[in-house]
Amino acid sequence: MSDQIQCPNCGGYKVETLKKEYKKESRSITRTDRLRQAIGLMGIFWVCSLIGGVITAAMGETERLPSIVGAAVCLVPLMGLLVFSAKSRSIVVATIYHFGCSLCGYRWSWEKGTPIPQANVKPDLIATGARKLEEEERRRQEEAALHYLSKQGKK
Description:
elongated; 3 helices; 2 domains; 3 strands; single chain
C-alpha cells in the first residue's frame, strides 16, 4: 500500500503492512473456453508448420515435408483431449491486507474495495506508544554500541 494508513484504534500513523494475501475462488472452465484455446493453439501450430513447409520446399528438401504435415495432423487428437478435460481454475476475487500498529499494538485486516476503518484518535495512546518506541530505539542503539566496542576490544 502506498498510502499512509491510520490506526483505527489509536489514530497513529506508525502502521506497517504485516501481510498481503489474495482470496481466491474456484471457477470451472467451460468446454467452450477450452475449445477456443484448442483452436488457437492448433492455428498457431499449423501456421508454423505451413511456414516450415514452405521454407523446406523452397530449399528443395521435400522429403521433410510429409513429417511436418504429419506432426500437424497428430496434434488434432491432443487438442481434443484439451477440449474435453474441463478443469477448474482459481481466480483472485479480493486482496486482503493485514496491518499492525507499532504504537498501540492493534492488529486488523482490510479488504481492498471496502471502506478503510474509521480512526479514533487517542492522543494518550499515541504518546505512550511513541515513548515506548523511543525507549526501544535508544536500547537498540546502546546494545549496538556495546557490541561494536566488544568487537573492537577483541582485536
